[in-house]
Amino acid sequence: MSSRRxxxxxxxxxxxxxxxxxxxxxxxxxSIFRAREEAVRRYCQRExxxxxxxxxxxxxxxxxxxxxxxxxxHADGRxxxxxxxxxxxxxxxxxxxxxxxxxxxxxxxxxxxxxxxRHPELEALIVMELKAHHVVVRQGPKGLVVGGLSALHKQxxxxxxxxxxxxxxxxxxxxxxxxxSLAAAVKSIATSSFExxxxxxxxxxxxxxxxxxxxGLPLVAANPYDAVEFDGHRVDVRLRVVFERVAGVEESFEIxxxxxxxxIDICSRAVLGYHIVLEPEYSRFDVLKTVxxxxxxxxxxxLTIPGLRYAPGAGMPSARLPELxxxxxxxxxxxxxxxxxxxxTLRLLTEIVGCGAHAGPACxxxxxxxxxxxxxxxxxxxxxxLPGTTGTAPHDxxxxxxxxxxxxxxxxxxxxxxxLTAVAIANYNASAHDSLGGRSPLEMLAYYVREKCxxxxxxxxxxxxxxCLLQHEHEGHVRxxxxxxVRPYIHFFGARYTSHILAGRADLIGQAVRLYFDVEDVRxxxxxxxxxxxxxxxxxxxxxxxxxxxxxxxxxISALVRERKMRIxxxxxxxxxxxxxxxxxxxxxxxxxSKAEVxxxxxxxxxxxxxAPPGPADKHKPDPGVEKQAAPVTAVxxxxxxxxxxxxxxxxxxxxxx
Length: 658
Known about the structure:
InterPro entries: RNaseH-like_sf, RNaseH_sf, Transposase-like_Mu_C, Transposase_Mu_C. It comes from Undibacterium umbellatum. This is Mu transposase C-terminal domain-containing protein. It holds the Pfam family Mu-transpos_C. By secondary structure, the protein is α+β, with helices and mostly antiparallel strands. Helices cover 34% and strands 16% of the residues. The strands form 5 sheets. It has a 6-stranded antiparallel beta barrel with strand order 13-14-15-18-17-16. A 5-stranded mixed sheet has the order 7-6-3-9-10, sandwiched between helices. Strands 5-4-11 form a 3-stranded mixed sheet. Strand 17 and strand 18 form a beta hairpin. The two termini are 64 Å apart.
């Protein structure tokens, strides 16, 4: 009795159940439904069955059965709720249990479903053919139409014979061998979800739909810097670069299309930072560079094109609103590109920036609508209006018009595109948006930051001073030999590194060390032991130390030497030989011209002498640039200046990895 009583008193809350528009029911069913609904509601409030029967007229022995019907699962995944109380409403699909005893088409209800249940191999065959697009479901004027059904039916009959069915068994005994039931099963499996239905219909484009509710991820960014979106876009313009062969003699070459990496704030629609990449594919280093540029205060580039100027009030948020410099966001949303999911990228976002990283589902760009819409706007106001545009697709009329009217295959210089992009993005932040009520993104940020005074997070002070966002950790070993008289050194990507301090430490030979390097200039490394103690700064030896170069350049030079495409002697500078090699092939291959421009910019932007990265920030080490001042001692109650609160010893919340 105790178990029976516990099950009866354990009743659900019916306030959240799916309801029914009972006025749409036939008049003879409305009174029945309303009596059942009132009975179930009173039962959920723990009234007695006899009292419910007296009030509603529903038999007391049927109330519990009606309640159980409401708790069953509907086809949409929710509870049946009050929908189960509609007269003549089925809450469970028909499941056949009787055997087929007579021939003919009559009396076969549920036979095909029973066949698939007993032989899962047949249902797996249908699913496999749908995934392989051998069977296509299209929408015709009278409903769904199955294409390729004859071939599937032939395989289906063959599989039935392999499973032991004979010509006297269902469905082979039927006149049409069950082809109509097979078509109904194909439609049912294909339309089990929208994704499977669109895939079965060979849909090339799918709408975004509703974003899945990820736990901890806000559905709407209520304030600026709650969530940002990141993505990369291939600029739809053919470009050229100019190389100076000798003094006063220039030669231009066409390069590959460049990448534009952008970070945009969801709430204000403001572009926080961007980065232009000249490589065929952007890497994790480019993602980190974009994050850095979104946080560091922006400096407007110098414009050299006549007549090109910024709109009044245009700029980036960190420049127009100084308090947004080094501001950090809470969520970082991106796609499933390999560069985005790299360990260095996730470490930077979670440990240094202190935000959550959310990678959306694959092949669904509508999960990041704001950044995708920005790229469309940038194309309409800039790239698609330039000569040499490639358009949005090969069949775009603008692409053909540009090819017919352009005097050269590429008429836009890379330097010009960089300036035009800077002006276009700065003006975008100052232009009015309909979705913002006629305000610009910068005005929205100023309203939230200066009028509403929302709470923001900023990058920790040690990270601002050292700006080691682009530093990367690499594990290595100290090499050398006491027997052969080889002083200690470190081998790092095909080159030797050493210093006066390391060369005298024989005890470090064979020890594991941690190396921190700047990917933009790998001529110097900062060395730490496995416990995190700094050892020294080492510099590259030999001819590698003459010219600044990136890690990617060194890898490509080593690959060319291994493939015997380039010969370098001990007295030659490998970086200069690499530049000459790329310039010779720039006229034949656009990729060579792009690499030559990347190498040239890396050499020009680097410092003349090797400069070691600062390494991981130490939150316990005081800032050497800040002098310590002694506080004046005054008597209690006789202070000559306002009393200042003591500095808390609680950390800032930033996590630094060694």
